[in-house]
Structure formats: structure tokens, C-alpha cells
Task: structure prediction
Amino acid sequence: MDVRLAAWREVSGKTIDFYPGSLTDGAVVDAVVQAVKPDAIVHFAEQRSAPYSMIDRQHAVYTQTNNVVGTLNLLYAMKAHAPHGHLIKLGTMGEYGTPNIDIEEGFITITHNGRTDTLPYPKQAGSFYHLSKVHDSHNIMFACRIWGISSTDLNQGVVYGSGTDESELDDRLATRFDYDDVFGTALNRFCVEAAVGHPITVYGEGGQTRGFLNIRDTVRCVELAANTPPAPGEYRVFNQFTEQFSVGDLAAMVLEEGQRLGLSTSLQRLANPRVEKETHYYNAKHSALLQLGLQPHLLSRAVITRLIETTLRFRGRVNLDLLAPRINWRAVRSPVQIWRQPGLDEAVGAPLEPAGVTR
Ligand code: USQ
Result:
């Protein structure tokens, strides 16, 4: 982190204070929020892999404890020290699942037995990870209602891409690029598979449809949300994606591009390790961020080529054993034992000093 912060200061002339610590340590969160008194808090600090949360009981418990307790600690810290701040929280499109009706942005107006109300859109999450975000949303909405905090829940779709204009300013600012079956997301994985000659891993029929966005749009959406905060006490939801694709459509696009580049790209339909609908209706609204001025970076052949070429550059580092899916939604315990978990009661917070970079 020291290297990254110094690199950022060097290339941008701007500084970032770094406080190492865990959101699950309420005292740490309290102290940071009290010291900084932020106008806006961008909360990305969650366990964000659906397969990871489905490995076994311990990983499900870790995911929900880390995510739900962390957000709750943040809400209490805001109530005490930044009650007029704006919480920008990374949610997920996966909170809604795949209903057979249009998906609205957070809320739906329902008429029932002659009476009408606007209510939170029904949640049908597809993993214990996605459910952790559902629980967060409920806690945040409640905190806004009772304490007057304001919040934007960014229900983000599946992200692809490997860098932003800022992170590409210097190699030291590159972020991790996940391609494995646990943390890698569909399109990134497909491009890596195309580059290394591994069959593209389509789970089941491939009709699973999701909202997707380029990582460049992720950062722009956060900026747009921060620049136009909600009213005090308001809880709003933005569906943060730019285009819908089925997994099969994406695989076909990558296959075509891989072959055009002269690679030995192929496609393989695997038994689906997840429990999810494989052909279904999907039509999700996503107009709020466009209305705020988002100009989407849409998926193109050039984007796919770039991802494949980035992988080719680092091809020697790709671990082929991490491409086939190993985590099964139906198994009591998936045969994956590669992460050390901090004990849930273990203090993971570190001292509260900025790491050598001053504002
Ligand atoms: N899939 C394949 N082959 C693969 C990988 C995935 O067919 O090799 C399929 C999955 O079965 C699923 C779809 O692609 O139907 C999306 O899977 P994913 O792993 O790309 O994304 P997901 O598990 O849904 O989670 C990711 C992020 C998560 C975020 C979510 C947004 O890891 O943090 O919340 O995307 S959303 O999907 O809209 O809920």
C-alpha cells in the first residue's frame, strides 16, 4: 500500500491517507470517521465473491459477518460523527435475482387490495454473498429512516476490464486481475481462457442474463453519486450497469475475437455448479445514472481484444488449475481449501495511524 500511495502522489500530485483496519472492529471505524468527518464515504470493503460464500458454512458465516457487521459499524460511526455525510455503498444487481417481471431501481409501486404503495423491490438473491448485500440494504434504509443519514446503494452488475484511466497512469497502480473460478467474473475469465487456450467455461445452458459494465464506468458512477448527494434521510438506489448480456452471448463474442486473433479458442458447456435459472426473462432499469450524465463505455471488440492482449502479456503467470469451477452450490463442503480465514473473533484491526502519507 505504501508503494501504491507514493506512486499515486507522484503521478497525480494528490495524496491519500491510509488507515489500516477492519470495518468489523467498531472502535477502529468510529475513530476514523471521528477523525476525518467525511462528507462522503465510499464503502467497497466487503467480501464480494458469490462462489467464495458458497464453499461451506465457515465461508458463508465469514461473508455475512464481515459484510453485515462492517456496514452496521459504519452506520453507527456515521450517526455519531458524520450524521450529514453521504454513504455510497456498493450493492449488487444480484439482490433482485431474476424475476419474471421488469426490475426497477430499488423500489416498485404495488396496488394490493385496492391500496397503493411504493415498496422496496422484492429480493431473491442467488448466494449467501448476494444475500449479505440484501441484509445491508435493509440496515442502511432503516438507518436513513430513523437517523436521517443519506445513502446511495449502487446495485452494480458484473464488472469487466482491468484498469481505469487513473490506474493505468503507472504500472504500480495496477489492481489485481481475478480470473479464477472464485473471484474472477464471467467476461474477464472468458478472455483469459481465450488467451491461454483453455475452453471458455459456460455454466449450463448459458442463457443466464445479467447487467454488465466496464470498470471505467464503475468509478464514474461513484463520482456521479458523490457529486449529487441525496437529501438528508433519503435512501436511494441506482442500478449500476450499462448493458445486458447472456453468458452465452459473451462467450460467443470472445470465441469469435479469439479466433480472429489466431488463438486456439474453444467453448465448453459445463454442468452448472450454481443453482440459478439458465433461461429466463431479464429486463432491468438503469436510467438514474444516465440521467446524471454517465456516458457508458460499451462493450466492443476492442475491449475484448485488449483484455486478451493484457493476458497474453502476462500469460506465464496464469495458473491453469484455477479455471475450472470447483465450488458447487449443492455441496455441503466444496473441495476448496486455499484461503486462511481470520477467526471471526480474532482482532484484525491494525493501529490507527496514517501510513506515512500526509494530506
Ligand atoms: N458464469 C459462467 N462461467 C464462468 C463464470 C460465470 O457461465 O466461468 C456465469 C455464472 O453462472 C453466472 C454469471 O456467469 O450466471 C455471472 O457470474 P459471475 O461470476 O461473473 O458474477 P457473480 O457471481 O454474479 O458476481 C459478480 C461479482 C459480485 C457482484 C456481481 C454482480 O463477483 O461481486 O455483486 O457480479 S451481479 O451478478 O449483477 O449480481
Summary: The longest strand covers residues 86-92. Residues 48-50, 92-94, 130, 156-158, 185-186, 189, 201-203, 208, 210-211, 247, 274, 276 surround sulfoquinovose-uridine-C1,5'-diphosphate (CB under 6 Å).
